[in-house]
Amino acid sequence: MTEASKQPGNCCVPAADQKTGTDTAGRDCIASGDTALEPTAGRGYEPGPKPKPSSGPGSGGFSMTVRKETTGLSIANAAGPDSLFLAPDHDAGEPCCGPPPSPRSGVHERPGYKICRFVEHFIETPAGPVPKVKTDTGFHDFLGTLSARSGLSRNNYKIAPGLYAAGNPDAGSPVLVTANYKLGFDKLRSCLKHTDAWILVIDTRGINVWCAGGKALFSAGEVVREIKRSGLSKVVYHRRLVLPQLAANGVSARDVKRGCGFEVLWGPVRVEDIGAFLENGMKASPEMRRVTFNTAERLVLIPVEVYFLWKPALWAIAAAVLLSGIGPDIFSPAEALRRGAMAAAAFGTGILAGAVATPFLLPWIPGRAFSLKGALAGVVCSVLLLPAFRGELTALEAPALFLVCVAVSSYLAMNFTGSTPFTSPSGVEKEMRISMPLQAGAIAAAIGYWLMAAFK
After folding, report:
1. 43 and 11 in contact (C-beta within 8 Å)?
2. DSSP element (H, E) containing 426
3. Are 377 and 358 spatial neighbours (Cβ–Cβ below 8 Å)?
4. What is the Cα–Cα distance from 440 to 407, expressed in whole angstroms?
5. What is the pLDDT of residues 34-45, one digit of tens each?
6. Residue 266 backbone phi and psi in degrees, to 5
7. Is residue 179 within 8 Å of residue 260, measured between CB atoms?
8. pLDDT of residue 418
9. What is the DSSP track for 130-154?
10. pTM
11. 299 pLDDT exceeds 50?
């Protein structure tokens, strides 16, 4: 439900050139004349190699209908008296050579797609096949989580929206709503080991519940849209949805009720409490409503904060090296390397202070404004850094490095406000209006001191 794809249909992860929500898994396919038989897919599928249309003998003027049977698929040739059919499953007996053949392909397999690793099998419902997900996460999921936490795949770590099943749900089982950010989806399904439930995944563009609510991506309109698209009203007889509490900033329960007739019940803040919430008659205790931001919850955000800095950091360090070479001789490569190394060290120390030390020590650093907390952390870290260059720094270079460290730390700490429950949008905007001019002024002063030092 909380934390922190495109799909061609009702239950799949699509091929790259497909568009979200264009088909429904399990739908019969009909091809006639020269029309190619297109793969049907949906939730529970991953893209495979895109099949090429056939142009061999017998393809033109051939009309066929593919329909589901209890034992597989049958194909009838409507163009002539003869018919083609798939033989029923039977004992192949002793093969002429090699091991026995593997089982026949499943009825839910689609050309060009492969079933997602987290899908166990499919459940037939009045709305069509629904993927049943595994409630145990594997090594592949661990690698995906690690990649998302480090920022490597965070912007594309998502699954197809639609209806999923956990356990063996029936028409009376609860419906849990979440975002299509896979890290949050994995966390939810891993907490449903002893629960039978339907999981309705909303297309939040791969953004987590809280942030998607703030961006109006996890909204009443998206919830209503997915309910209608998935045919949820055909699957359950009740009209209740359990939404994560952290989505309340983007979802109007009244609009959901008006749009599709489903009542919204707000679930717990932490997905770990979903089992106790359901067992307690869908009532949350005060502890389930309390938002926390402890040390572990802060530290897990640091890798992403640092990852997004590497590109601007490289540009900033390159600029510092070039500025460091400017002097009486117009440009000195030796001075560029010597002084540039000191400037890079100050910039790196500012990153360490603002993106690592400030989140870790957040409750204990004085002040309410994050920019102030970051500035104080930058002061301490710069005081620890400057003695390392004792004897090399001039009277103008030392304050330049100090200002760089403090300004960078203050800015990065202020940027961390979007990851915390401590601030409001209006409060952040006010802080930015005050702090950013001061930070820019500190950087400008540092550049001035640094350039003047080269001519002393």
Report:
1. yes
2. helix 425-454
3. yes
4. 8
5. 333 333 345 676
6. -85, 120
7. no
8. 72
9. EEEEPSS--HHHHHHHHHHHTTSSG
10. 0.70
11. yes
CB-CB contact of 206 with 5 (8 Å): yes
Show the tokens assigned to 22.
């264009």
290-315 residues labelled b (16+ CB within 10 A) or e (exposed): eeeeeeebbeebbbbbbeebeeebee
Question: Between 77 and 95, where is the model more confident?
Answer: 95
Confidence of residue 102 (pLDDT cuts 50, 70, 90): confident
Contact 119, 134 (CB under 8 A): yes
Residue 119: pLDDT over 70: yes
Nearest one of 437, 376, 448, 449 to 410, comparing CA atoms: 376
Residue-range domain boundaries for the chain? 113-292, 297-454
SS3 228: helix
**Do the strands 45-47 and 64-68 form a parallel or antiparallel pair, or are they unpaired?**
unpaired
Burial (CB count <10 Å: 0-12, 13-18, 19+), residue 439: buried
* Better-predicted residue by pLDDT, 147 or 318: 318
Q: Which residues of 168-203 are buried (b: 16+ CB within 10 A; e: fewer)?
A: ebeeebbbbbbbbbbbbbbbbbbbbeebebbbbbbb
Continuous H helices in 264-369: 274-279, 286-289, 295-299, 302-307, 310-324, 333-351, 358-360
Do 231 and 128 meet the contact criterion of CB atoms below 8 Å apart?
A: yes
Residue 21's pLDDT band (cuts 50, 70, 90): very low
Chain-centre distance for alpha carbon 452: 47
Helix (H) or strand (E) holding 199: strand 197-202
Q: Write out the DSSP string of 87-120.
A: PPP----S-SSSSPPPPPPPTT--TTEEE-TTEE
314 phi-psi bin (left φ>0, alpha ψ -120 to 50, beta other): alpha
- Tell me which residue has tokens 């890079």: 344
Write the pLDDT tens digit of every residue in 404-417: 999 999 999 998 88
**From CA 273, how far away is CA 433, in angstroms rounded?**
39
Radius of gyration of the chain (CA): 29
Alpha helices per DSSP H over 352-424: 358-360, 370-385, 397-415
Measure the CA–CA gap between 109 and 115, rounded to whole angstroms.
7
CA 429 to chain centre: 26
pLDDT tens-place string over residues 135-171: 999 898 888 888 888 877 777 889 999 999 999 999 9
CB 49 within 8 A of CB 112: yes
**Per-residue pLDDT tens over the stretch 328-357:** 989 999 999 999 999 999 999 999 999 999
Pairing of strands 197-202, 162-166: antiparallel
Please check the confidence at residue 59 and state whether its pLDDT lies above 70: no
CATH of the domain spanning 113-292: 3.40.50.11600
